[in-house]
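User: Teach me something about this protein's shape.
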Amino acid sequence: MPKRFGLGFTLAVAWLAAFLCAARACDTWVALRNATADHSVLLAKNSDRPPMEAQPLVQIARSRHAPGEIVKCTYIAIPQVAETYAHIGSKIWWAFGYEHGMNEHGVAIGNEAVWSKEPYQWGDGLLGMDLLRLGLERGKTAYEAMHVIIALLEKYGQSGDCERPGEWGKANYHNSFLIADPKEAWVLETAGRYWVARRITEGVYSISNIYTIEKQWDEAHPRLVEHAIEKGWAKSAQTFNFARDYGDYWRSGSKDAGAMQIRRNMTLACLRKDSAQVTPAGMMKISRSHLEGTLAEPRWGGSESFWATPCMHDSARSGYHSAASMVAHLRAEAPALLRQVYWASFSNPCSNLFKPFYLHGPRVPAAYAEGSSTYSGDSPWWLANRLKLLCDLNYGTLAPAIRKVFDATEGDEFERQKRLEAEARKLIEAGKEAEAVKLLQRFIDENCARAEKEYRTLNQTLPARLEKAGIEYLFTDYVRGWTSKHGVPLPLR
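Assistant: First, the predicted structure itself:
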């Protein structure tokens, strides 16, 4: 067994890595109508954030706003619009914005950290997560939501410490977005207040923590190329390449561009392998990948190869993990009540469970919006995250036990979903939409109640399995330090 690091050294390295590297990582991928089994659009994301930072799930109703009203974003306040749309979002507990989300019109968005040569603002603009939420609140289509983000970006810029001030190291980055609706998707990549966008109408696409748009785009900032030439980043319009000329591959956060490219290659390869047959379950499988069956497969668990896998686990080497995941199922021909399904998982998806939610009547349980950086046994996010922490201590033994339970539950969810949606369609066609809403609400409530029971049971029974099998985790001092600081009960002596 490799020698374990001392606690002080481990935490210092983790903090320094966050401060210098801004090593936030995420992955977002989409399958368009001709690539999916049911001719829907599927958008998925893994959100990677610092350890012990809760990312609850919130649901906000459609709202009307008075003239002159303002909206308080994470660091600045901006004018509110007359109406904001209903939506579900994965909300970093201390921030205004979302890591990913979906609105009542079937618009779904995920964002990524990217690093550019443009200057970085601090505290006087909008976080990428703020821009994402505002796009959901104000956009009826992917294209409209994209231009909401562009207009706000050009006016206010993107800025601020992207990690909670005082709790984690400083981090600042620019953003790329993958924005989908039931008919198409748009890739929006930004550098400061400059931007470039590409429309995707067929096939599959993926973004990670690197720019993907090079010489082919559909829309761009009017001075995008001219500005790059003025700065000396590009020699001419003929040779201009956005990813190459605007990307900063020397800044600390982007020095792992090779691993980020591996993650993008991996999600694309999985999508292409299932071309024309991509399903929500297939998207979930991608989100859980640790590159099993390849040269990069870890020996003890996901924490060994944090950069190269979509399912990122934190450790003394990285300090970041997948805090929440989404699969948005967008169906153009379905009735409004069934048009989009938001599948949500808390903490690392490999050791957790996706649950389906609907808009236009059904509600996410209020407890799902609870959670901070202090452990709470009443927070579903924390129940899921403690399960992930337990699992990491001996992944080879505990992960199969967890997956046996959750694979059965997800399989049951999919089967019941088919039956209940068929019944809901009949009710809607008969003019009984209120009864259809009640039917779907019962489905949501039963799923969430079952998930909570399974979370609590596994949280109670896994320590005994762990005691018998022993701890195999490589960075026990690391996890001991963080769980002690944030009050997480783990069987570590």
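Now, about its shape. The first helix runs from residue 7 to 21. The radius of gyration is 22 Å. If you'd like, I can walk through any region in more detail.
User: That's plenty for now, thanks!
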